[in-house]
Write a structure and sequence with these properties.
This protein is of the alpha/beta class. The protein has a domain of 123 residues: 3-Layer(aba) Sandwich (Rossmann fold). The protein is 38% helix and 27% strand. The chain contains 11 helices and 10 strands. The chain has a 6-stranded mixed beta sheet with strand order 6-7-8-3-9-10, sandwiched between helices. Strands 2-1-4-5 form a 4-stranded antiparallel beta sheet, with helices on one face. Helix 3 packs parallel to helix 7. The termini are far apart. The structure holds adenosine-5'-triphosphate (ATP) and magnesium ion.
């Protein structure tokens, strides 16, 4: 479904991601793990057109998206839940959800998608008039995921959805990811919570200092002593 082929990207003269190749097949959930500053968010930004590629290509369902501007990427079926959620704090939950459906081809489906998101997250329905910035961290994450789901994406990119949340809420976020998968969505997720994310994805890539160092099935990575030592701490 999504093929990242030999992609190099960065900021100005700085290269944050070097010759990265990643593939996500339809229906799969794939994780990208790696230390702080490895280039994980850069990869997500490159896919969603927020930063230009310096090399390589990205294709979605066979169509090159390497030069599609960020606001048009969503029309290819990709939705991005960015790092730190990036909600509009002074807008209500429902107004934030509306933003996810803003692109012209999606507007007509707003009511239907809203119903879907409220069914998935009843808490959001309850809080639909609350200002997003006044919600708890876990609620804000639900809102950010809900906003991404408003465009009825084929693939959801999630950048550290569990960051900054209390352990019990982290569990809920991973439960949400399971439910999103059960809805048939394809998922590409960046997580620091390596042990937990490997339990909900099929495969993972290890990114270090801008380079893909390793990839394998979740079972293989969970069984790797090097990865356990470096990222799981047991
Ligand atoms: N806007 C920017 N301008 C300049 N350098 C940047 C910018 N954004 C990120 N970088 C640099 O690019 C490198 C990769 O950053 P990136 O955000 O992709 O890391 P990450 O793997 O997501 O890390 P974290 O786990 O801390 O979120 C880092 O060295 C970072 O300082
Ligand atoms: Mg990041």
């Amino acid at each position: 479904m999504l093929v990242i082929d030999d992609v190099t990207a960065g900021y100005g003269d700085f290269t944050a991601l070097r010759n990265a190749s990643i593939e996500v097949k339809a229906g799969e959930a794939v994780a990208v793990i790696g230390p702080n500053g490895a280039g994980k968010s850069t990869l997500m930004r490159a896919i969603s057109g927020m930063i230009p590629l310096k090399g390589g290509t990205i294709t979605m369902e066979g169509q090159s998206i390497s030069s599609i501007p960020a606001h048009k990427i969503v029309e290819t079926g990709i939705a991005h839940v960015p790092e730190n959620r990036r909600l509009f704090a002074r807008m209500s939950v429902e107004e934030n959800l509306r933003v996810g459906c803003y692109a012209k081809p999606f507007r007509a489906a707003f009511d239907k998608r809203l119903e879907f998101v409220y069914e998935l997250f009843p808490r959001m329905k309850e809080r639909r008039n609350q200002l997003a910035g006044t919600m708890s961290g876990g609620e804000q994450q639900m809102c950010a995921i809900g906003r991404a789901l408003m465009s009825d994406p084929k693939i959801l990119l999630m950048d550290e959805p569990s960051a900054g949340l209390a352990p019990v809420i982290v569990q809920q976020v991973f439960e949400l990811i399971r439910r999103i998968r059960a809805e048939g969505l394809t998922v590409l997720i960046v997580e620091q919570n390596v042990q937990q994310v490997l339990k909900v994805v099929d495969r993972a890539y290890l990114l270090e200092a801008g380079t893909i160092r390793h990839s394998g099935s979740s079972a293989e990575l969970l069984g790797s002593e090097d990865i356990r030592k470096a990222y799981i701490g047991v």
